[in-house]
Amino acid sequence: MVPFELVVPRTVEEAMAALRTTGSGSASVLAGGTDLLNDLDDQRLSPTRVVSLRRLPWRTLDWTGPQLTVGSTLPLRALEQDPEVARRFPGLVQAVRAVGSVALRHQATLGGNVVRSAPASDLVPVLLSLDAEVDLVGPKGDRRVPVDRFVRSSRRVDLAPGELVRSVRLPEARPSSYLWQRVRPANDISQVAVALAFSPAGRTWRVAVGGVSPRPVLLAEPARLLGSGAPDPAAVREAARRAGEEAPFKTDRRASEEYRRRVVRALLARAVASVVDAPEFPR
Amino acid sequence: MTTPAAPIRPDGEVKLHGAALYGTDLDVPGMLWGALVPSPVAHGTIRSVDLSSARALPGVVAVGPDDLDRLLPPGPRDEERPLFPRGEVVYHQQPVAAVAAPTAAEAVRAAARVRVLIDPLPVVSDLESIFPDWPGPEAATSPHVAAHVHARHGDVDAEFRRADRLVREVYRTASVHQVALEPHACLAEVTDGRWFVRSSTQTPFGIREDLAALLGIPESSVVVEGTWVGGGFGGKGAPLLEPYALLLARASARPVRIALGYRDEFRLARTTLPTVVRMETAVTGGRIRARRVRLLLDVGTSLPGRDFATGYSIGFLLGPYATATFDIEGYAVRTNKPPFGPHRAPLAPQCAFVVESHLDHVAREVGEDPEEFRARHLWTEGDTTPLGQTVGPFGLGAAFARARRTAERWRREAPPGHGVGVGVGFWSTSTGAGGEVRLRLTPSGVVVEQGEREIGSGSVLAGLPAVAARSLGPPRERVRVEYLDTSTAPFDSGVYGSRTVGALGRAIDEAAVDLRARLGERLGGAGPVTFRAVGDRLLARTGGRELSVAELLTPEERAAGGLVVGGRHFGRPGAVDERRVVDGTFYAYRDFTGTAHVAEVSVDRETGSVRVERYAAFHDVGVVVDPASARAQVEGGVAMGLGTALTEEAIWSDDGELENAGLKDYRIPTLGEVPPVEVEFLEGYLGAGPYGAKGLGEPPMIPVPAAVALAVREACGAHATELPLSAERVARALKLL
Amino acid sequence: MTYRPTRLEVNGRSVELPGLPDDERLLDTLRWRLGMKGTKEGCRTGACGACTVLVGGESTLSCLTLTKELDGRAVTTIEVGPEDAVVSRVRSAFSAAGALQCGYCTPGFVMSLAGRLRERGAAASREELLEALGGNLCRCTGYASILRALDQLHRGAP
Fold it and tell me: Which of A195, B291, B433, B575 is most deeply buried (CB count within 10 A of its CB)?
């Protein structure tokens, strides 16, 4: 590991200033560190400065009507332990609990997971299914970007120099579910995953999948096939079949493309059953 | 209020307070940190290894092939295993030089500064790319063949021609890693011609011998001291880092520590590599008439003639089933991977998986009840094995019968979609090259002086005191184990092969007989000597006479710290019938240890995921020496076997690089994947250890993949012929893909 | 800005760390700067749990934590004395159940359980204790004896 300077700013202004490096310098942002520090060890990243967000006042959970705003440095563990979040966003909590171990989730953050945007992220599919947006602060002002546009590719996000993710905003409570397939159930990386959510306001479904290349995606056609309420079994079968065809699955050492295509069908059908059976599902 | 029970683990307190120091914890003033310089390719011709930029860094010492003559005595060194290759590198990350620096970070930087120029050569990573089918005559001259073994008896072809049914299958098993949680680590110091290394090793004397050969120095000038060992599982039985640490210590005149990061632990480990097994079985009239077994075993860059694995493992493909007529042949195939090395019951679980799955399949093909069919053919005491050994006391049949009763009950209780499987396996208590101990009788107790360290199984810290207490007679809490380094300890072969309690226990028993005889003489009474503890004194009694041990010792003995008596055990295995051996070395068994396991699984028919719901293990152990350790060995072995069965697989790329080095992508079971394990011991079929005890390190691992595979087949009909039974492989067997 | 060395409270003892490099991990600070070798280095990627310690009472992977970020915080390790009642309870349960073999993973298991028990106290359910150990790998025990210790802790909750 190449030595770097650690900066732990207390204000957003200090943080943005710290991100401005000169000459050949480069800066990385440290939130929970559970992913970044691996990259530093392996020298996939060799910044001269690391800016820690730990002391910024962003470990927050705010409700505004139906909206939930999660501060970007809130540890995942705090998110999963909030009963109201579990009730209104069951898929989100299922996905959070799929990340690493309890100790890891004491450190890892939602903002960090989105910014690092690992292709096998368990959280990005759920955020897509919930139509989440990220709130950015930066030298040129604040912006709000849907996660679907923010995450561009594998480990590539729409973040300008000096910009930081302040929070992740979930516009409405949604009956939702997150299901995954792994080599080992506990503490592993998902081979394929389905995030499913139903928007009560728009009476529409969202289907997102993980285990695809280069990054998790929303699938429009399967969502449409599920209709505007509890779908009948034929619609579920058809949506599941389409999900298996439509998603850009890949072959890697964790699974083959054809296995992923086969399994996503089962996961989607199960996710629909779990969402429709929940008491919060609008009749 | 109840009195707390005596602790099950004598090492509990030290480990629960973080006070046990392992190889990774070694730290002395003035120490340098060592690092190996790895080959960036798996095969290539070395053009140059330039250490000058590394040496230019302050405080850095670097050694390469050109430094050996300068640093080592002129004596002959093992030329087949040079510390640094001169001509070709043959596996990815093979050390081509080594560096040491005042800090870990500086050592890493120095290693990165070594300029290694290598012209790449074609890499052979997959044994089936060399021999896609069974090799023909070209194998005799192929540079890829490291060893060949062949044995036969009777006319297999004739039996095959006249058989009712001939069943042919091909099986494949994956490479698995030991995953001791502590990576390899050692600390070396060279002073005044004394080559001293502290290491978390399973075999202090074994690595002393190897280090002397590798470095070309006399064994008497090498001293190995063990530390606490953070798990071994066969992976810490040969020198890995020690020669480099010694070389760097010699070059720097400073103590040098080397510890592997966990990814390098995977890349450099010597472990179980892939196999392809072809099974052919002829059945006539409900009996197996003949079997042909052909094994291709990837041995990495194991040296020709040094391969033990092929002849060793191939025996597990013949047993434990009676076969009058057979033809068994195996090739050790060289690939560009690190050399093959032992992994708890090397290849025995894989072989049991193949044999059990195949015979289950054969039975189904001929319309027989598979368990009945297998039971009918099991070896029993007095049988002759295919290689001509007579089977000794063997509890396998009894274990299988117990397992089947449990399986029948579980089948009645199991919900739909579950399956139950019974797998068997066998093992033999190893003797290694023998072992010795000293018992020291002191006024307050007994000390077992010996050279092994506790690796976790309990064999040294719980097993040896249990034997000493039972054979000699003092209360167990008055028996203490003392670790000695190789300069003062009596010789022993190492903690491996389920041999520790078997061999050192016999040595203790021999010493105890001697010691009791001497005390009996001094007491002058008739009958056996017994002991009791009063306060901090130990009293000995025979007949009506009782004296304190202090009174029984001579003044010289008291001055020397006690009465010391040695014991040794150099057991010999039986012999195979060499008339049946066509080529190579086959290994004979010393005793016959049987085990039968029952697994109940549920299978997700849409994803292929297997969940093990219940598990039971029946073990023929001869005699249980230490009940808590015995149970713990079985529970741990089953969990390790579940990894081999379901999730563990080291994957090499075509370039010979390990793709999933590290614990994120190589998945050992977590506590969520291991079901409760019911353990039952069958005593009375006596083996090679003290009182007839049989080894229990390896056996618990052996039947696990077989039991799981057969349960999966019963649950959903999937007949998977590859390990591990990943969800994707089960899905393929279910024809979902 | 005036320079002030990073301070930690380690097992109740205040520790100053002058000259602490910015990139140093808590694992390395404990082991090599403070000489506290009880916390073990395993995978160094957050996948094995061997290096788990408590930071502010919460289980934390010391291999993935920069020490300097913890300025002013309390760290508890396996070396903590009997004054830590929760760790002592976990130790007693492990000792009685023989819930260890080679012992290399043991500090991580003890600290993971202690963190959960400290957080939840008597209310900790068996499921919660199991969840707390999901990231701790053990190769020797097959987890059976560890689960027996866990059940003592669960049943033994006041």
Answer: A195
Give the residue carrying structure tokens 């062949």.
Answer: B150
Question: Which of B106, B176, B181, B704 is the best substitution to test chain C (most C C-beta atoms within 10 A)?
Answer: B181
Q: Is the pLDDT of residue B327 over 90?
A: yes
- CATH classification for the domain delimited by A176-277, as one of 3.40.50.1390, 2.60.120.280, 3.30.390.50, 1.20.58.220: 3.30.390.50
Q: How far is CA C33 from CA A160, B208, B245, in A?
A: 39, 32, 23
How many distinct helices (H) and strands (E) make up chain B?
20, 27
Q: Which of A45, A73, A106 to mutate to test the interface with C (most CBs of C within 10 A)?
A: A106
Q: Which chains touch B (3 or more CB pairs under 8 A)?
A: A, C
Residue type, B682: L
Whether A263 sits inside 8 A of B607 (CB atoms) is: yes
Phi and psi for A115 in degrees, rounded to 5? -65, -40
Q: Is B385 helix (H, G, I), strand (E, B) or coil?
A: coil
CA distance B222 to chain C (A): 26
How many C-beta atoms lie closer than 10 Å to residue B351's C-beta? 28
**Domains of chain B listed by start with CATH number:** 25-122+178-268 (3.90.1170.50), 275-430+584-733 (3.30.365.10), 435-569 (3.30.365.10)
- Rounded CA-CA distance B109/B129 in Å is 38
What pairing do the DSSP bridges indicate for beta strands B479-483 and B446-450? parallel
- A5: chain C residues, CB-CB within 8 Å: 22
Residue A259 token pair: 């296995």
Tokens linked to C87: 């760790």
Cβ–Cβ contact C68 with B under 8 A: no
DSSP B384: B
**Averaged over B343-354, what is the pLDDT?**
96
Strand A176-181, strand B563-569: pairing: unpaired
Q: What is the pTM of this model?
A: 0.97
Domain positions in chain A: 5-52, 61-170, 176-277
For residue B120, count other CB atoms closer than 10 A to its CB. Answer: 13
Contact of B674 with chain C, judged by CB distance below 8 Å, is answered with: yes
* List of residues 6+ apart from A155 with CB closer than 8 A: A116, A117, A118, A119
Put simply, the answer to whether B25 touches C31 (Cβ < 8 Å) is yes
Cβ burial B392-429 (10 Å sphere, 16+ → b, else e): bbbbbbbbbebbbebbeebeeebeeebbbbbbbbbbbb
Q: Residue A2: what pLDDT?
A: 66
Residue B463 clears pLDDT 90, i.e. is over it: yes
Q: How does pLDDT run across C26-77, given as a tens digit for each residue?
A: 999 999 999 999 999 999 999 999 999 999 999 999 999 999 999 999 999 9
For position B308, what pLDDT does the model report? 75
**CB-based contact, A41 to chain C, within 8 Å:** yes
- C63 in Cβ contact with C75 (< 8 Å): no
User: What was the pLDDT predicted at C15?
Assistant: 98
- pLDDT at position C158 is 39
In a 13 Å sphere around the CA of B170, the CA atoms on its Cβ side amount to: 7
In chain C, what are the domains? 6-76 (3.10.20.30), 85-155 (1.10.150.120)
DSSP H or E segment with residue A71: strand A67-71
Contact B589, B381 (CB under 8 A): no
Low-confidence ranges of chain A (pLDDT < 70): 1-2
- Name the E strands within B584-711: 593-603, 610-622, 677-683
- Among the partner-chain residues C32, C104, C135, the one whose CB lies closest to the CB of B230 is C104
- CATH of the structural domain A61-170, one choice from 3.30.200.20, 3.30.499.10, 3.30.465.10, 3.50.50.60: 3.30.465.10
